[in-house]
Specification:
This protein is mostly helical and 284 residues long. Helices cover 47% and strands 4% of the residues. It has 11 helices and 2 strands, in the order E-E-H-H-H-H-H-H-H-H-H-H-H. 24% of the residues are buried. Its cofactor is heme c.
């Protein structure tokens, strides 16, 4: 006779607060499902890489490899894009900007290169970080915003000792080096800040600026891209435009560094990311 009442089943002897633990057999369908998973697992470990060894894992009778699959996918896409990559390599940057198909491909590839290699500093949206990394969206370019100039900066970096063609500039530390005293530095800071609004003509700050700063930043404060001297009239500040920040810059100088990417990326990748960055800020 089939057992229908819980009292017909034995218990394990465990009881807590009137609750007893029955010793019931598992449902037959559940047991067979469990056995099926065991068989499947054994078959899987035979067919696919599974068991670790001293020098590597078992390869499996099917010879499948996730790395191999990824490599095949990469090779397939590289073969599909080979023609466009070749055109990117052989085409001048200015011509790429004027060729819709190449421009679209360069922007797409450049965006991928940027996310993988540049976003760690400049941010995923290329807005940079105040006091550390330039904003690439504001059309304000320290070394020039023409696509060829951007390509030069990316390829050879800024103050990168391992590349002889790197961008170089040297701002004196006017305070640390004893060129100006504290009062003079404050006067220059006031004048520099005024350049983006109404320049304070005839002041001590203007005189000191013309004697010490105009050689690089020009008399009008517009800067010089060939020297890497920023424009001081546009109210765009990498290290901050308040007086304390400007005083600190004049006193201690600034010298940001960017790696040279020519030895890390292919020429096509450097071109593509140059086109992409050029498009972000409107370019020049």
């Amino acid at each position: 006779m089939a057992k229908r009442d819980d009292d017909d089943y034995p218990t394990t002897g465990h009881e807590w607060d009137g609750i007893r633990e029955y010793d019931k057999p598992m449902p037959r369908w559940w047991v067979w499902c469990f056995y099926a998973t065991i068989v499947f697992a054994i078959g899987y470990t035979i067919a696919y890489p599974a068991w670790p060894g001293i020098t590597g894992a078992t390869q499996g009778v099917l010879g499948y490899s996730t790395r191999g699959a990824v490599a095949e996918d990469i090779a397939r896409y590289e073969a599909q894009n080979a023609g466009l990559i070749s055109q990117i390599n052989e085409t001048e940057l200015s011509t790429i900007l004027e060729t819709p198909e190449l421009l679209q491909f360069a922007n797409a590839g450049g965006a991928a290169v940027f996310r993988n290699n540049c976003s760690q500093c400049h941010g995923a949206g290329a807005a940079g970080a105040m006091g550390y990394y330039p904003n690439l969206l504001d059309d304000d370019w320290l070394w020039g915003g023409e696509v060829e100039q951007i390509h030069q900066t990316i390829a050879h970096g800024i103050r990168w000792d391992e590349d002889w063609d790197t961008r170089l500039s040297m701002m004196p530390a006017f305070g640390v080096d004893g060129i100006l005293n504290d009062a003079e530095i404050e006067a220059v800071a006031d004048y520099v800040i005024s350049l983006s609004s109404s320049p304070a003509a005839g002041t001590l700050g203007e005189t000191l600026y013309l004697d010490n700063c105009a050689a690089c930043h020009m008399d009008n404060g517009m800067g010089e891209v060939e020297l890497g001297a920023p424009n001081l009239t546009d109210a765009i500040w990498l290290y901050g435009g308040d007086k304390a920040s400007v005083v600190e810059t004049i006193t201690y100088s600034r010298a940001g560094v960017m790696p040279a990417w020519a030895d890390r990326l292919s020429e096509a990748e450097v071109k593509q990311v140059a086109v992409y960055v050029h498009s972000l800020g409107g370019g020049q």
